[in-house]
From TrEMBL:
This is Beta-phosphoglucomutase. Its cofactor is Mg(2+). NCBIfam families: bPGM, HAD-SF-IA-v3, PGMB-YQAB-SF. Keywords: Carbohydrate metabolism, Isomerase, Magnesium, Metal-binding, Phosphoprotein. It comes from the Bacteria. It catalyses: beta-D-glucose 1-phosphate = beta-D-glucose 6-phosphate. Its EC number is 5.4.2.6.
Length: 218
């Protein structure tokens, strides 16, 4: 098997926006008088905005227009928090790995469920390191369905068997496995243990070492 492209999730892999998503949901939950903890937020990793809101509401029902308003409000808070994002917010190793991938003539795509993904990579100063972008606007069925990653691979012009997906969320790992991708999980085993290779972070991860660990060559 040979890997010719990498598809990176954004939140929690390239940058720690997971914390900003938490802050924004927490502010909304506080306003609604709904208890919401950091632990509960863990279950929202990789989960799209609407589904996250429904999980946060824990069975409380609201008219559709109110749900829309609540999602807009959360996103307003999130946008407030990410306004301060700069290249300093890149997680260790992310830029270096992307640069190595490009230098080796391999392809890189973004595969994020976020509708704010483009804005975030612009602010991080890494937009030009991606050959293709699949985001929260790209497909209807979100992770754990494989559609977003399949779309990203198609944009790269590569079959899933020639792409590795880098993910920090359980839903993302499942999506990549369902699509027939090689999967690199970032984070604890309890969360990403089903990936083919599990790493604590991208810090110090070189392309050659990664391909060696995956027992594949470019
Ligand atoms: C994912 C995050 O990348 O994007 C989730 O892990 C988030 O926490 C989802 O809910 C959707 O993001 P956005 O920016 O479209 O609300
Ligand atoms: Mg993520």
């Amino acid at each position: 098997m040979s890997i010719k492209g990498f598809i990176f999730d954004l939140d929690g892999v390239v940058t720690d926006t997971a914390e900003y998503h938490y802050q924004a949901w927490k502010r909304l939950a506080d306003e609604l008088g709904i208890p919401f903890t950091r632990e509960e937020n863990e279950a929202l990793r990789g989960i799209p905005r609407r589904e996250s809101l429904l999980m946060l509401l824990k069975g409380r029902t609201y008219p559709e227009t109110t749900l829309d308003e609540l999602m807009e409000r959360k996103n307003r808070y999130y946008l407030e928090y990410i306004r301060a994002i700069s290249p300093r917010d890149l997680l260790p190793g992310a830029r270096e790995l992307l640069q190595e991938i490009r230098a080796a003539g391999l392809k890189a795509a973004l595969g994020s469920a976020s509708k704010n993904a483009r804005e975030v990579i612009e602010r991080l100063g890494i937009a030009d390191l991606f050959d293709a972008i699949a985001d929260g606007y790209s497909v209807t069925r979100q992770k754990p369905a494989p559609d977003l990653f399949l779309h990203a691979a198609a944009l790269l012009g590569l079959p899933p068997t020639e792409c590795a997906v880098v993910e920090d969320a359980t839903a993302g790992v499942e999506a990549a496995l369902a699509g027939g991708f090689t999967v690199i999980g970032i984070g604890p085993h309890e969360r990403v243990g089903r990936a083919h290779l599990v790493l604590p972070s991208l810090a110090g991860v070189s392309l050659s070492k990664l391909l060696e660990q995956l027992s594949v060559s470019a």
